[in-house]
TrEMBL record:
Lineage, highest ranks first: Bacteria, Pseudomonadati, Pseudomonadota, Alphaproteobacteria, Sphingomonadales
Domain HAMP: 222-275
Topological relation to the membrane, as annotated: Multi-pass membrane protein
Renumbered residue ranges of the record's region Disordered: 64-106
Claim: Transmembrane is one of the keywords in the record: yes
GO terms for cellular component: plasma membrane
Organism: Erythrobacter longus
Compartments it resides in: Cell membrane
Protein name stated in the entry: histidine kinase
């Protein structure tokens, strides 16, 4: 079901409202159709009641005019004068002997149709309202072409037989017995037909209403979602390039305009903070590195070799930490990431050979040949940080390059104690380390993993840490291919 629905707000609201409108219109059409049917049935019941109430009197008048041979007017009373009904007349007029008849038993035509107890009850109510309280009431509904009397009439009337329209009309047969041992008075009535084109008119009205509402909803939603789409695109662009500030036009409803105004203010403030950060970092680099360089020259005059070496190491620690901080601060700035197609296996092998030349226990395991767009200097920095961590905490490091589903994976494994599972996320935060001191020989400043992750993220990848089942830590830099 989720795959069938659009993913955008505009699409989902349009589909949801369209479905709701279709359902409501279908319910409305159904109710209108049922109301029309009930009106037609009520009209048929009222007319039948009128004929039954006045039927006896009219039958006596007709018998007096035509003679005693038509006096009974039984169910087989088609004998005698007939007048074929005309299908085009309003309501459909049946011959008099079919419109009203009297018989000793319920007519057979009642059994040929569908018994309608609801119409019988309605007929009884109408009769009682007029002062007639019948002992029994029966109402049957059937297709006019299925009524035996009408079929026989059509057989004798070629013109009627040639006109098939009347056959599909609804014939309502109503019969009452006024007393327990009385005769059955029956009236036959062609129910009023549906107005020509009524269904088409209802469908046209439904389609017009549906189309108008959908069109109105379309323009309203576009007015809401268009500025939202522009804002979404601007947020994505700003996240990739925070140096370029663009002020969006405030359009749409008031809530959307306020949101866009708040974003414009936030974007301007973020850009200003980034500029202030660059100025501050430049000052730090100038104000700290220059004195450190001067201090490095001054300690050459120290006569004690051990003291001079310790002082020089301290200066190098400060300089290295400063370099890490400055590089971490430059991550994500415009123009800082200039990539080139690089064979990652060869790149990793070069870093491993650097450590091997220093006598460190670092091993390269069958690297795959994978090419990715990377900033070579930064990736080398990340590799060195992870190899150093593996050697420092695990005693040795194994490096391999493998292909993932959509990433090239630079994997580093060691046999050290690993990291508690609940502390893995914290270890990638700045200045967090597993060893409490700040001595670079025993753990550095706690920026190695943070810097490696920042470099991976800048390339569209990530850094993933996990403890190995056999012991030790596995670190993976995942870079998109």
């Amino acid at each position: 079901m989720k795959r069938l629905l659009p993913s955008s707000l505009f699409g989902q609201v349009m589909v949801s409202v369209a479905l709701a409108l279709l359902i409501s219109q279908a319910i409305s059409v159904t109710l209108l159709f049922r109301a029309g049917e009930e009106r037609r049935e009520s009209a048929a019941v009222t007319t039948s009641a009128f004929r039954l109430i006045n039927g006896a009197e009219r039958a006596e008048i007709r018998a007096a005019r035509l003679g005693p041979e038509t006096q009974n007017g039984r169910e087989s009373g088609e004998r005698g004068p007939r007048r074929a009904f005309r299908d085009g007349e309003r309501g459909g007029r049946l011959p008099p002997q079919l419109r009203y008849s009297v018989s000793d038993n319920p007519p057979a035509v009642l059994q040929a149709g569908t018994q309608r107890d609801d119409l019988a009850q309605r007929l009884r109510e109408v009769l009682e309202a007029e002062g007639v309280r019948p002992h029994a009431v029966m109402v049957s509904v059937l297709r006019a072409g299925d009524a035996p009397g009408l079929r026989r009439l059509a057989d004798r009337r070629p013109r009627l037989a040639a006109n098939p329209n009347w056959r599909d009309r609804t014939l309502v047969v109503s019969s009452i017995q006024r007393t327990a041992d009385g005769v059955w008075e029956t009236t036959r009535l062609l129910a009023p037909g549906r107005p020509t084109g009524s269904l088409g008119a209802v469908l046209l009205q439904t389609l017009l209403t549906f189309g108008f509402l959908i069109a109105a909803l379309f323009f309203v939603l576009r007015r809401i979602t268009r500025p939202l789409a522009a804002l979404t695109k601007r947020v994505a662009d700003f996240s990739r390039d925070p140096d370029t500030v663009v002020e969006l036009e405030e359009t749409g409803p008031s809530d959307i305009r306020h949101l866009i105004a708040a974003h414009n203010t936030m974007e301007a403030r973020v850009a200003a903070l980034l500029d202030e950060k660059d100025v501050m970092l430049g000052a730090i680099g100038h104000d700290l590195k220059t004195p450190l360089a001067a201090l490095r020259v001054r300690i050459e005059g120290v006569s004690d070799d051990d003291e001079r070496a310790k002082m020089a190491a301290s200066i190098e620690d400060i300089t290295a930490t400063l370099d890490d901080i400055l590089m971490l601060a430059r991550m994500g700035r415009k123009g800082s990431l200039q990539t080139e197609a690089t064979e990652l296996g060869a790149l990793a092998l070069g870093v491993v050979e650097e450590f091997e030349d220093l006598g460190e226990p670092v091993t390269m395991i069958n690297p795959q040949r994978l090419v990715a767009e990377v900033q070579v200097t930064w990736i080398k920095r990340a590799l060195r940080n992870l190899v150093s961590n593996a050697v420092r905490y695990g005693g040795e490091a194994e490096v391999c390059v493998v292909r993932g589903e959509a990433y090239a994976i630079l994997r580093f494994e060691d046999n050290g104690p690993g990291i508690p599972d609940d502390a893995i996320a914290d270890m990638m935060e700045p200045f967090t380390r597993g060893e409490a001191s700040r001595n670079r020989a025993t753990g550095g400043a706690g920026l190695g993993l943070t810097l490696a992750r920042a470099i991976a993220v800048a390339h569209g990848g990530d850094l993933v840490l996990a403890n190995r089942e056999e012991g030790g830590l596995r670190a993976e830099i995942r870079l998109p291919l």
